[in-house]
Amino acid sequence: MSLFDERNLAEISAPELYPGERLVVCRNPLLAAERALKREALLEATEAKLDLVLVTLALPALSAWPGGCVATEREPVSGSTRNRPV
């Protein structure tokens, strides 16, 4: 299938950028496929980073520090007004 096999065309206008001109746009299936792959790769990379954050937060060494280094409702960081019991 080539770019011109699809007939999804639309006419748009952008008077602020192209005064007095009509623009014709079409769906590009090749570009759409490329963007879908890129979007999927970005989502996978984000999930991998978030998984690393979850693993890091689950390490026992974090709660072993004096005063703790991750604020919780039971152990707020000193000087912090967030997560303190009301």
Q: What share of residues are in beta strands? A: 5-15%
Q: Return residue spans where pLDDT drops below 50 for at least 5 consecutive residues.
A: none
How many strand segments?
2
How much helix, percentage-wise, in residues?
40-55%
Shape: elongated
Biggest beta sheet summary: 2 strands, antiparallel
Secondary structure elements and pairings:
Elements: E1 9-12, E2 23-26, H1 29-58, H2 60-64
Antiparallel strand pairs: 1-2
Care to describe what's here?
It is elongated, with a radius of gyration of 26 Å. The longest helix has 30 residues, at 29-58. It has one domain (3-63). The chain has 86 residues and is mostly helical. The mean pLDDT is 76. It is built from 2 helices and 2 strands; from the N terminus they run ββαα. It has a two-stranded antiparallel ribbon.
Short précis:
The protein is about 40% helix and about 10% strand. With about 90 residues, it is mainly alpha-helical. A two-stranded antiparallel ribbon has the order 1-2.
Protein traits:
86 residues, mainly alpha, 2 helices, 2 strands, 41% helix, 9% strand, elongated
